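Comment on this:
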Amino acid sequence: MRQFKSCLQRGKIKRFKASPEKIKLEFEAAQQDLKEAKDRFNHQKYKYATIAAYYSFFHIARALLYLKGYREKSHYCLKVAIEAFYVREKILEFKFVDYFEEAMGLREAADYQSIFSKDGAKRMIKRAEEFLKKAKKTADA
């Protein structure tokens, strides 16, 4: 909870009233990024498959945060907020925060160091699919 409070104090998480349309657009962006990740993977473009899979995670998490009346100014604080609002409240399993954190690391390695793998891309796509399915159920509940 200390990390979440720090994100709030630093203005990296802020109150935000998102319209249902804005939330819907985030889920659509997540779906599109997931589709793009699969396409890149099928064309053996594992670096870009990894990056697109990460952005699917990002848009899923953003949609969930919007549902709680907040928005992010930091990818790290977005992860912290998902843990605070959804994992601590036992709405989502902690594994989704782990998946998001791993996706962040893999995306950064792919983007900034050109370190990526077929296995990493495949794992992130599978996990993004799982997270999207769970998040949509959560949003509809």
User: Anything to note?
Assistant: Helices lie at 2-9, 20-42, 46-67, 75-87, 95-113, 118-140. The chain has a mean pLDDT of 96. The first helix runs from residue 2 to 9.
